[in-house]
Amino acid sequence: MATPMYVTESGEAIHGIMAEFANPADLYHAAEKVRDAGYSKWDTYSPFPVHDMEEAMGFGRTILPLLVAIGGFTGASLGFLMQWWMSGIDYQLLVQGKPFGSFSDGGWQAFIPITFECGILFAAFTSLIGMLALNGLPRWHHPLMKKERFLSSSDDKFFVCIEASDRNFHPERTRALLEGARATSIELVEE
Amino acid sequence: MSQAVNSTSLASRFPQLREQNISFAPGAGGMGIGLAVIGAIMVAACAAIGWVGPNDIHARQALAAYHVGVMSVLAMCLGSLFFLLVFHLTQAGWVAPFRRQLENVASFLPIAYLMVWPTIIAEIAVGGRMFRWLADAATGDPLLGRKSFFFFGGSEIGHGHAPFPIFFVIRAVLYGLVWTLLTRRLISLSREQETAVDATPFAKARFTSAWGMLLFALSTAFAAFDWLMSLDYKFFSTMWGVYYFAGSAFSAAALIAIILAVLRLRGKLEGTVTGEHFHDIGKLLFSFTVFWAYISFSQYFLIWYSNIPEETAFFLHRSGKWSWLGVALMFGHFIIPFVVLLFREVKRNPRLLTLVGIWAIAIHVLDMYWIVRPMVYSALPDPPHGPLVGLTDVLGIVGVLLFFAGYLIKKIPSGNLVGLGDPYLLEGLEHKNYV
């Protein structure tokens, strides 16, 4: 593990700074401020979905659709090639007088259902695994879970946490930014 | 369900609902009458060629061309009715800003239905130029004998002339009743909502959609059996009704996209129908592209694999000089729109989506052409060729489409473009995809 940039007095690595907000409106405006300050490694936590939060946080578009498309087309191609090689070349088996599997004799038609299913299968796997890989799930533990106060993020409080690994992170300036955004409490979060 | 809102206060709170943005000046859409007249003249010319044509084949071709046009337009109207039903059933909010346009298209359904009748009457009168079962009923046929009840009720066939196809006609009347009842009721309930104090009319529309959806599915499937599949009565496919429905939902989504894009380009519905709505209509178009491909391939695949003569005949009629049509459908109805509509920018851009929509409607007409036209030649070993042959196709198909387009151009500006009493309107205005 790389040497942490910031440590507490007792020497523990710092995960980031957590700020609590009283209502979704404050959270929303705080998110806008953090976004405009140029932070990239941070997140908001709310007991329920807050509309347009992705805009307040300045989310870009995910690359997941592209990955799913690549996965789907790869799966379809592999599925087709597999059948073409197996029943057209490796082990030709005459069934019901149907052609073996080239484009000239029309045998490829028999391969379409499995080609389709392989495409769906790979696209579905890419979308599930890609989603998990991109959002860092599943994970056993998160530093925020150690905070007693953070538990109310599933009840009636709203949180922003800016991570210490962010380029723009600075112990005083980041704290000042969150304080200026109507945070009701601010805490350091250890790794 | 949200409460109905007062329309005058609505426009002050939502500037996108101001009058200039959601309505046309009185008398707009006059060009529609001209288009409809031109369309009617073209259809008349098509009929005239069929009537005076030197050869029996001209009558068949004129009839088939007109049938292609009518079945294409009927499909778009049925698709719009389907969307109205399903959006009422699911209480969809995002469609509220353009529900009027679905209703405008669906309002043509009774007319499109009536346009089928000249074909039915002509066919019964001349004893079957296009519907082979009418012609073969005169001489009798073992396979037709097994199915004759479905067309002729209890009447005997094979006595030199075709009996009156009583059951066929009764079904045709029933479809008309169902479609007219459903469209008129949904549209009038939607109008009623404009002045209602609460959302009762929409609740009624939702209830109507529940039983209406069942009747819609049955009537659409059987109309497809009667008017398209029976062109070759020896052929049968349980997938046929779904096949026609897939094409109708596909073409209806395309037509709605075109209508909304044209309205936006004319400076209307600014901020009312946004890229978010186009995005979702594009998704519907995309999904019905895939659905059509899934259905049509499933139908083809089972026929190809089982290799039963009555079924394979369908594709034999469409092989040889017609086989390019099947390939064109494979690419044009599935592969090309599938790849193009994968792109988010295409779905969100009204101009690009309009191009895809025009393509979709053209390819849908080609789909109907592929179903109907090869049957004209099925009984002829050596079909004649000539300039009039292609001309009837153009006149019959384009004529019907122009008539439909003229109707819409006149109909759409005749009222508000947005139903201001729609209980889902505010939800629909705020619609977002969040992706």
Give an account of the 3D structure.
The complex is a heterodimer of chains A (191) and B (435). The radius of gyration of chain A is 26 Å and the shape is elongated. Chain A folds into 2 domains: 14-59 and 139-190, Alpha-Beta Plaits, CATH 3.30.70; 64-135, no CATH class. Chain A has helices at 24-36, 53-56, 64-90, 112-135, 171-179; strands at residues 14-21, 42-45, 158-163, 185-190. Chain A is built from 5 helices and 4 strands; from the N terminus they run E-H-E-H-H-H-E-H-E. In chain A, strands 2-3-1-4 form a 4-stranded antiparallel sheet. Helices cover 40% and strands 13% of the residues of chain A. Chain A has 191 residues and is α+β, with helices and mostly antiparallel strands. With 435 residues, chain B is mainly α. Chain B has one domain (34-429). Helices cover 73% and strands 0% of the residues of chain B. Chain B has helices spanning 7-13, 19-22, 31-52, 56-89, 99-106, 109-114, 117-126, 132-139, 142-152, 166-195, 200-227, 240-265, 275-306, 309-317, 323-341, 344-348, 350-376, 387-411, 425-429. The longest helix of chain B has 34 residues, at 56-89. Chain B is globular, with a radius of gyration of 22 Å. The mean pLDDT of chain B is 91. Chains A and B meet through loops of A and helix 13 of B.
